[in-house]
Amino acid sequence: MRILIDGLNEEKFKRPLQLITNLFFEEPEVAFRREDAMPEAEVVFTVIHEDSVSVKAALTADGLAYQAAYEKSLPECLTDKEVSKTIKKAVSHAYLTVLQQWTGIIQKWGILTGVRPTKLLHKSLQHGETMDNAHKMLAEEYLITPEKIQLMQEIVDRQLLAIPDLYHLRDEVSIYIGIPFCPTKCAYCTFPAYAINGRQGSVNSFLGGLHFEMREIGRWLKENGVKITTVYYGGGTPTSITAQEMDMLYEEMYTSFPDVKNIREITVEAGRPDTITSEKLDVLNKWNIDRISINPQSYIQETLKAIGRHHTVEETIEKYHLARSQGMNNINMDLIIGLPGEGAKEFQHTLDETKKLMPESLTVHTLSFKRASEMTKNKEKYKVAGREEIEEMMNLAEEWTADHGYHPYYLYRQKNILGNLENVGYALPGQESLYNILIMEELQTIIGLGCGASSKFIHPVTGAITHFANPKDPKSYNDSFKEYTEKKISMLKEIFHQESSLA
Ligand code: SF4
Prior knowledge:
This protein is α/β, with parallel strands linked by helices. The protein has helices spanning 10-22, 80-103, 117-126, 131-140, 146-162, 200-223, 243-256, 278-286, 301-306, 313-325, 344-357, 374-377, 387-403, 434-441, 474-502; strands at 2-6, 29-31, 41-49, 52-61, 64-73, 173-179, 181-182, 194-195, 228-235, 265-269, 291-293, 330-337, 361-366, 407-412, 423-427, 445-450, 454-458, 465-469.
């Protein structure tokens, strides 16, 4: 699919228009110059801006014409950057409208192409906007459908119930700890995850670096009186290391981090059932960690095989019961919609199996074709469901969770996600993962330690975010963890000292 754009500056508009076009077609080309290849559609824009911005879009395709217009006032107080943002939004608005008319596909998230829709609603409410006005803005300016606005509101309400002081946690931090090892690599995975077998040397040096980071960051937090709200061990699979290594890691956490007893939540992903043992569960118990994830993804054996998860369906169920019997009180399970060879029937089976276990929370992902994954590189090998069936499965998940007492409490979207849908976290009341809320809504600094761990430093006044990522592979991490720790400490100084000088 090739769409020719006329009347706009390529440099400014290429990216926003490409993102909107991607919502409708697979690998479309948005061109700003007429070339030999004939475009399938041509869109001519007229943009006028003075005290308001007025955009007209006229699309011609298959001998038919479609038109849309959008106007938005430009208050004088806006900065140049804000004006340019408003113009881009107005152009996206008119463009999405003509594409919807042409294709007959309604984009439920409207012109929103970002990852965190609920952030937009939080921001309006935090700035004192009434709920009605905030909803009106989402519908009129972003073209989000009433169904999705309702979902956003439901999630925002849940989040504020789970963390009533969500808007006032900027003087605390959360910690993410990345352990980059797994038993084997799954076909859809782009996380830093290295098959652990035969890598004990690499594991040892990695853990050495991680202990160092935990000690140094912990020391800084203690010395500066900064509290920790939540800790999350992810990866990879943090339970791929031995029980003894886990024990030493949690001991380090208790020794180095400030006031661990009052941390609101500590989660350890035990995603791969093949890594869970009774001994490791004892270690988690010893350190009062009772929130873990055990991820079935699917309850169909052939699917697990096709995606390279070398464990059986029975093992997921057996390890779930083992974890329960050894005191794990808050278990999350991840499911994926749209795995190769799976349709509504297979997904219904997965939901039926989930019913027998009733974990405290469920995260329902929609398969995303990430560029670096094995699955994307060999796309033709994997047969996946179409847009309509994906939507049917999403609806099944929505209905099933509502019928069984779960509420949606966070959501995020990804690029290249099947059917342009979203990933949704559901939980039984009071069992939401606080860390997931904090990371999604970007209302607090998150410090990432370990391999591939990303940190986000949130500016105390403007809320501006500075990203910082640790190296993804254990070798580069081992070579540079000291330097990365120092950089993070200097960023923490900037954030927190700025805050205290403003207080
Ligand atoms: S278990 Fe998770 S982190 Fe590990 S390879 Fe599979 S998807 Fe990646």
